[in-house]
Predict the structure.
Amino acid sequence: MPATNVAEILKKVQQIQIVANRTVNDMFAGQYKSVFRGRGMEFDEVRQYQPGDDIRTIDWNVTARTGDCFIKRYCEERELTVLFVVDISASGVFGSTEQSKLDLVIEIAAMLMFSALKNNDKVGLITFCDDVIDFIPPRKGKAHVLRMIRQLVDIHPVARETKIDAALEFLNRVQKRRSVVFLISDFLDDLPRKTIAISNRRHDLTAITVSDQREQALPDVGFVNLRDAETGEVIEVDTRHPRVRELFASSNERRSDAFSQQLTRLGVDQLPIGTQGDYLLSLRKFFRMREKRFR
């Protein structure tokens, strides 16, 4: 649940900062930099042509102006713009462990933000539900990162239908230059394939899928009422019957597999994390996959 006063918010932000900083320094110091790269090559300098230089790099304007042959030199651009597009719909408050899905979202977003900070990248935040709720434009600096974490800690989840389409369309309007984009959601709505494909062409898009074990399988606890946090719809389920539990689990497994296959076809990387278990294992696996691809 969201913190209720400034003191609680600041205390939680400090706790998240300590954990995220320690994790980044101890475990992911070099990996972030190696798996996320700049937009390509940027101009470095103009220098006089030397035998063996590629004639395609000749700067004809400078050459014509000076009468001597000059070439353009480029270097790899390391600085990134990183944007977090975060679903703050009411389904995020669900959690069958000590952490809700929203708590997990804040923790992993903070860790990736501090990784970006360590790399001197610009970082921005978009929060959304059925529409964009808030936008913090990308900037550098620790104070800016802490402001975004405070924003996430103080979130009031929105009990409306999630529309990823609206968030990605907004992203593509406001962010013209290629960026690293983390789309963080439980993805309980239909995947907007066209908009995701467009966003992935323009940016380096990763879908961080957040889940809870009780969304995948039901325990045997008798009659339970299941309420949709976004629509308010309530259904009663008798979990005593093995067939009911089996149908629930198989339906969710099929949906999860189909979702992953759709992302693969669209060329979008997926980072699945859950409220149960150690999400750092998933993050390590994701980094190794990216490193292998670049090699």
Notes: The chain has nine helices and ten strands. The radius of gyration is 23 Å.
